[in-house]
Specification:
Strand content: 35-45%
Number of strands: 24
Radius of gyration: 21 Å
Shape: globular
Structural class: alpha+beta
Number of helices: 8
Largest sheet: 9 strands, mixed
Amino acid sequence: KRLLLFAFSFCLLPIAWCQLPNYWQQQVNYKIDVTLNDADNTLDGFVKMDYHNNSPDTLHFIWIHLWPNAFKNDKTAFTDQDLENGSTDFYFSNADKRGYINRLDFKVNGEVAKTTDHPQHQDIIKLILPKPIAPNSSAKIETPFHVKLPYNFSRGGHMVQAYQITQWYPKPAVYDRKGWHTIPYLDQGEFYAEFGNYEVQITLPDNYVVAATGDLQNASEADWLKNKQPFTRNLKAAKKAEQKKGAGMSEIPSSAKTKTLQYKQNNVHDFAWFADKRFIVNHDTSKMASGKVIDVFTYYTTPQKEVWKSSLLYAKDAIQHYSSLVGEYPYNVVSVVQGPASFGGGMEYPTITVLSPEKSSRSLNFTIAHEIGHNWFYGI
């Protein structure tokens, strides 16, 4: 199945080279401040968006994705798809393992803005604009938000104090020549989103290792990652703990001290981050044909140490391969992160990809190559 998908992506190349006449796309720039509370697995954040209307249409409303609400109850599109695929884990889960987003209070250009529910999907709302956004103009949209992170049933959430923070903030739906694309969160398929520039500030306990989209702005944290000594634990005990789906995390108490990390990335369609106190960090650089040097990171836990020992080489080979055939990698960093088994192989995000635990270095090499390729298809 993976090989067929990979081959199909290259069949689309001729289409990608051809720009449609009078093509346009919206741009949404983000500034997000977020704090992780690992005692109750929640996020408290504030997002500011600059929404640029590059369309020929005047907008009177904007559909907003609230994808954490896909895990709110058993009446969502995600739940329906999950059941259709034969999984009942989420359907029969307890309330403490479910998730949601709330405490929203939208303002547009400083004016309070009302919202209405989507007629079908709990993870989409309509933001009513106090004043329309004319063509070739923009609006400043802001809101606080609170997220209860779900147990990781599907491509994001947490497993005790290992965090996979994906599809986590209020996000405008795409508006293109075909109109609005109000797509609910699903376990299968990609995420259609507007491109933009991101500035994200993350606050969390000091002893977490964080891997995220974009360029880390904290020089001291970057040096710490590049020289970090791995947390040492008995391999047998570590494997046993992971088999219990996160049990044993209490052996690494969270620091009472917090740190605030800043990331920036332009020209991407999403931002994801991952935090785990157990991560082993590997770092190297890779020189592109143009002479640009990029940072390459891999993050994994002790039970995967043997399988991941050549992960940097696999990531560098993948970046060079696609750059030579498709177009040079335009970003400054590429990261590969080991996540839980619920990712079902892997899931890509701009400049970073997360993989399920692999059984062999050969399968890891293949999956890294596949997921890094998504930086081009559907990314760049």
